[in-house]
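Apologies for my clumsy wording, but are you able to produce some protein sequence, whichever is easiest, and the tokens describing how it folds?
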Amino acid sequence: MSNHLFDAFRARMPAPGRLLMEAEDGRSISYGEMLARSAQLAHALSQLGVEAGDRVAVQVEKSPEAIFLYLACLRAGAIFLPLNTAYTLTELDYFFRDAEPRLVVCDPARAGEIGALAQASGAAVATLGSKGEGSLTDRASEEAVDFHDVARGPDDLAAILYTSGTTGRSKGAMLSHENLASNARVLVDLWRFTAADVLIHALPVFHTHGLFVATNVVLMAGASMLFETKFDPARIVSLLPRATALMGVPTFYVRLLQQDGLNRQAAKNIRLFISGSAPLLAETHRAWRERTGHAILERYGMTETNMNTSNPYEGERRAGTVGFPLPGVSLRIADPDGGETLARGEVGMIEVKGPNVFCGYWHMPEKTRAEFRDDGFFITGDLGLIDADGYVHIVGRGKDLIISGGYNIYPKEVESEIDALPGVAESAVIGVAHPDFGEGVTAVVVRAPGSTISAAGIVEAIAGRLARYKHPKRVVFVDELPRNTMGKVQKNLLREAYRDLYTSKAG
């Protein structure tokens, strides 16, 4: 048996001397160097007791070494568990206890506090810094530059990515080698990636977009990337003439449009601009086309499924839609209650089936069963329709998930923290249209009698417990929350009441 996903990359790799990535610090890293470095790290993982099927939890800053570590986990047969660098100790404690990793890799500066949590859950600890320094790379530097990859089949797990849960509890989406390999193969072909492509990679690598869409597509195409540690709009504009493609979230494009240097000349070498992770406003799509001459290609995916749909490479990239189902992916619109398939033009639940769809939720068999139909279709939780021309439209979410700046935020998690504060009677957290972030996290709060708690006080109180991107951008105080006859808070009324909060002149 081969190592399914890594062998899929290896089969399409160019000559070892070809460039894989140019790092922001000026380093040029070849495919041959990637093979050597990932082999050394795979040896180091084995030396630290990591065996096939073990989880390796990773909370590190973006760096070339972080990518090598992902590949090393594949080669060692381990399950890669990337964690957002903004996660607090409270959040990490949950992930460590739930996933039971054999090894936790963190930034050297956080080794003390994270190490204590990791050890409490029975994990070993190693460090990896933003410049590639740390105990893991120190250990790896002593190892051989070749490695006998551990056998892993199509159905073996390659990664677990945590996503928001319907009760606020994060769920670990289990992704197999073939889930990732099949999606990368399809996207390379559909988006016409070749070894001649140069992708600007400015996305985080703890998220499916930057890790599995951007990185896996480059590796599967034998292409190269300009590897940026963060998104800097002015720098991205300066890199456009050297690249052929850019993948981003809508926030990227909004901020790039604010750069004076963005014009048709700057973008003339780019063949493809791709947007995902959150809805792209039609006005952003139009403004981008007017400034650059390019139509952004919007697509639709999820942590549990990788990519499901895409606007066409050739043909109309229709603003406000996410295009057509990918080859090999079946997509239908179903009645949310009964599950019957609806006619074109009718709004219902988006359900998908295909080799890209995950294996289930880690340690949650009942939740897994509840999210799949008997015929194998996954219930996405997103509401949509298919128009007369076959384009898929996302019209809302059956769940109250908020997507802000490309990150998923489940309101219940934020509400639980706010409701626990002295002086708060109750709260409702909603997503409101935001010109920069897509949606702004907004807390509607009812004070307890006699309380004078302030918006700043609420944000300050939860700062140490929730990642920054989950913090409310606005806190609004009300006397009571709107409820239906069953006592359920009517968040649709709140979203309507505050829909102009961030777009009005006052906002």
In short: The first strand starts at residue 19 and ends at 23. The chain has a mean pLDDT of 94. Residues 31-47 form the longest helix (17 residues). The chain has 15 helices and 25 strands.
